[in-house]
Predict the 3D structure of the following.
Amino acid sequence: SQEKMVQVAKKYGVELTFFHGKGGTVGRGGNPALYRAVLSHPPNTINGRFRVTEQGEMITQNFGSVPIAERTLDIYTSAVLCEQFTKHVEPPQKWRDQMDRVSEISCAGYRHLVREEPRFVPYFRQATPELELSTLNIGSRPAKRNPKGGIESLRAIPWTFAWTQTRTHLSAWLGVADALDVDGDEVEGLQDMYKNWPWFREIIDLVAMVLSKTDFSISKNYDEQLVDKTEELISLGNEVRDRLVNTRKSVLKVTESEDVAGPHVALLRASSKIRNPYVDPINIIQAEILKRFRSSTDYAEKEILQDALRVSIGGISQGLRNSG
């Protein structure tokens, strides 16, 4: 789409500037490696002009103090300048065809679970704090576009936020394994794309970064504490975690690596080692708070639990750094 818009703008002599909306999470367009993200854009789409909106917790993270704000602007400026002198890869038609296939299959896999699986909505609403998020008044807009609508009316932020709170991060990796789990010539083609196409490599590395933040034990504890002990819902939770395992394997196959931790993780590894011992207990406490909140009938107790839940949500989101 960007390439086509560039062609039209060039034809009619229009100076084109793309305006990129960037959230905190990968599922909402976020990327912790701003420099590489700018350099991986399609050819002739920046040309010294780059506009972006920072959203949510990323405003404080990237511009919360003068030194951090200066550093962020330095990164943007140097990346835009360097892009002018970067020799971009023109993807051949076979790579474009492969991306069409990847897009179609991953989208179908995503929609099958979210929209066609009857167990999904009950599971989602029990295993995550989605229902409670709408009552906490912690966002700038209502959680749903239509207050009476179902899961399809959820805005992107609470949808992603709910999954990141439980360390499942489903919205960022669901469907990836469906598209990447190939063999023979197809997997060799994907490996070639990863090695030689910066745009594709950046996408795969971002998925790897998200996968490194998932936590099986934390996710399973939410299920054990909050989900009804029915065969249907328990089995779906196990299926989701099985999909996560397959996604990790498929990413490793494409990257030809033995560790899902890619270059993005190298940037985060040191700080994660410091933060995780603090974030993990907050997750355990949050699951207990949710359990008590949902079962309580005492108004005064629910108010106290609601305040505690709000604090736990803030703690987890700050600890994970890109959660909303």
The first strand starts at residue 19 and ends at 22. DSSP finds 16 helices and two strands in the chain. The CA atoms of residues 264 and 321 lie 13 Å apart. The mean pLDDT is 85.
